[in-house]
Structure formats: C-alpha cells, structure tokens
Amino acid sequence: MNRQEVKLTVALSQKYQILQAVIDAHMTNAQAAGALRLCIRQVQRLKNQVRRRGPPGVLHGNAGREPHNKLPQPLRQKILVLAATTYADYNFSHMADTLPEDEGIIVSDETLRRLLRAAGHGGKLRHVKVHRRRRQRRNKEGELLFLDGSPHPWFGPQYEPVCLLLTTDDATGKPIWGKFQPQEDRDGCMEVCYRTFLRYGLPLAYYLDRGSQFIHTDHRAEQQGRKVPPTAFQIAMKALNIDLIFANSPQARGRGERINGSFQNRLVAELVRFGIHDCKRATRYLNQVFIPRYARRFGRPPADPTPAWRPLDPALHLPSILCAKHQRTVSNDNTVTFAGTLFQVEPPPGRHHLVHAKIEVQQRFDGSVHLVHPRYGELTAHKIGRRKDLLLV
Fold it and tell me: Checking CA distances to 104, which of 12, 41, 118, 321 falls within 20 to 30 Å?
C-alpha cells in the first residue's frame, strides 16, 4: 500500500498510535474509545480510515483545504491598502463598522484584526486590569443621564485641543447630543441640556462630576456648618425637578468615561478623514452622522422598554430656566448695570418708570441678556454702553 508521508502533531501522533494498537489487536475498540474520548462507532470509522490511508487517516477531512469563507486575495489586498491610507487612523473595530457603509465591504472585526495584525498594523496590545465592580445600569431610558466634558485634540494632533460636551443615557449606553467648544463651561452644559430636553423630554436625574459649573465646592464652609450657595445649574435643574447625583471620582462615572475614550478613538479619525477642523462643523457632523451610527452599533435595549422621559409642558420656556439669574435694582434714571454694561429700561404700558423696582437679569446660554420683572414679565431694554466708559465721559 502506498503510504502518503504526512507530518502529524503530537496529539495526532498519539491518536494514530492508539488506532494502530486497535488494528494490531493490542487494544479493544472500547479501550480506544475511552482513551480518545470518542464513541466506539467513531473509533471504528477512524480505524478503517487508518487501514486505507495510513497516518493521514487521522486527519480531518478539511485538513489542507482553504476555508470556504476565506477572503479572496484581491479583496485582502484592497483592505490592506485602505487600512494604510483612507482608514489609517481607524482602529480595527471602527474600520470593520465603517467598511460596509462606505466601501461595500462586509468583514467581521475579528477577521479584519487578524488580517491587519499579520500585516503589522495596530499598536501594542493592552491588558486592562479589572479591579472595580461594575454598577448596574438603570432600567429605563431617560432615568439617568451622564453629562461630561472631554478636552482633547479632536481635530488632529496638529490642532489645539477643544472640549466635547456630551450627554449619554445610562440604561442604553447611547450618546444623545454633544457640542464642541473651546472649553467646558456653564453655558455649554446648559445648551446640551436644552437640546436634549427639546428632543426627548426631561430626564429623572443627571450623574455629574464636581466641576465648578455644576456645584460649588467650599470645604471650609462645610466644616463651619455654613450653607454653600447653589450654582445656576443646580437652580435650573431644581426648577425642572431633575435630581443631581455628584460622583466623588472619575472611576465612579466609569461608563461615561469609557464612552469618552471610545469617542476619542473613533471620532477623531472620522473628523480628520473628512477634513473637519472647527467646532461648528464638528458639532453638526457629531449629531447628524456620528452619534446615530454609534448608537445603532453600540446601543443596547433597556431592561424596561417603558421610557422614563417626562414630557415637556408646552407652557414651559426652557431658555428662561436654563440660565444664570441675577437680582438688580432699577436706578433713578431707569437704568440697570450688569457685568459692567449699562441698560436703559423701558417702562411697561401703564407705568412711567420702574425706579427702585427689583428685577431679574437672565444671562442665557446663547450669550443674550434679558431683564424680567416679577409682575410685568420681560422688559424692553437697550444697551447704552460700558459703565466705566460712560463715567469717564
């Protein structure tokens, strides 16, 4: 019999020796089945294969054959070229998600990873130590939102860092709305809340860090038992009956921090790819393209499908709530000074003046200033000029 030469692994060599012992009547089928952890019928089948073919009889029938789902060589080469050019800044998973939509190439992220790793793509493998117990997600969408700022060179390493303000739902892991701006501040956070509320309604709670735009930190006042005044953000959320939960460490908001890291990995690559280098265009791309695609890919259904969003009251005027409010007294010349600027107040119908009246100055997130009387509502006022310049004249 012509025996084909074949190189067996140690395990296959031992398997062949056991089957040969059965053929030579040194072992029974039952003993071989126990040693190989196979059924007797399988041992008999393999024994017949070895009789006919010799050592190759222990090999699987597909040994040496190319898998039917192996990528064709031209397609493999095209992927390698794309990975080195168009998608040079994309990670493996991000590229696998983008290829079907942009290039019409369907390939799993694991297949892509093996292909590109073999070609030298990808950085050093990271081994993350898990040392904290993960907090359970809330059950309903809108029950708890994250709001956080992430400073980063979002437009590429050659550009100055800017801040991404992003709000995310805890129950689904879906990003909701975000904005790019030079730095994290109160007005930017107010605008992100405004866009979120208009689109979805009012959430039950926010999970926040202890940034100065969210909460005043005065340890001395706390030790002395004095009350720390609330921030404009706290006042606004209290007016809307939205609970605020403040974390004591970044690790406590791990889920929100992880999505920021994921955005830094994926979003930067897309902004660089499409040549987006300013906050306005980046905000538009983020909310119209990136967030919907990210939510479809990584969002998960909530444990309870009933949403927790509270509908907005049509009579509710959000800009007059999501703002910083200051108390002022109208002067004898019907003027009010705010932030060094003098405003001429027009009295409402039926009044000749508002001298000594207490009014509220609202500093809204769009930069506008509004004067509101508790009885007559919003007043008409004209900016005269800077107070210091007028005094010099």
Answer: 118
290-303 mean pLDDT: 93
Report which secondary-structure segment, H or E, holds 336: strand 335-338
The answer to whether 189 and 147 have CB atoms below 8 angstroms apart is yes
- Residues 152/158, Cβ–Cβ less than 8 Å: no
Q: How far apart are CA 334 and CA 374, in angstroms?
A: 17
Element (H, E) at 380: strand 380-386
Confidence (pLDDT) at 221: 63
Radius of gyration of the CA atoms of the chain, in A: 34
d(CA 90, CA 83) in angstroms, rounded, equals 8
- Residue linked to tokens 């791990």: 254
End-to-end CA distance of the chain: 116
Q: Are 167 and 178 in contact (CB under 8 A)?
A: yes
DSSP structural state of residue 130: -
pTM, rounded to two decimals: 0.73
Q: Give the span between the Cα atoms of 309 and 317, in whole angstroms.
A: 18
CA distance linking residue 178 with residue 287, whole number of Å:
7
* Residue 361 pLDDT grade (very low, low, confident, very high; cuts 50, 70, 90): very high
Quick: pLDDT tens for 228-260.
889 999 999 999 999 999 887 665 566 667 888
